[in-house]
Amino acid sequence: MAVSVIVGNGDFPKTEYPRYLVSSADHIVCCDGAFRTWLRCCKGIFGEERMPDAVVGDMDSISPGLRKRYASLMVHITEQDFNDMTKALLYTLRTFPDTDCIHFIGFSGKREDHTIGNLSLLMEYASALSCSRPVADTLSGLMEKALAPYRGKRLDIDMVSDHSTIFAVTDSCELAVGQGRSVSIISSDNSLKIKSAGLVWPTDDVVFDNLWKATLNRAESDMIRLEFNHPSAALIVI
Question: If you write DSSP's letter for every residue of 111-144 in order, what string do you get?
Answer without folding.
Answer: -HHHHHHHHHHHHHHHHHH-SSS-GGGSS-HHHH
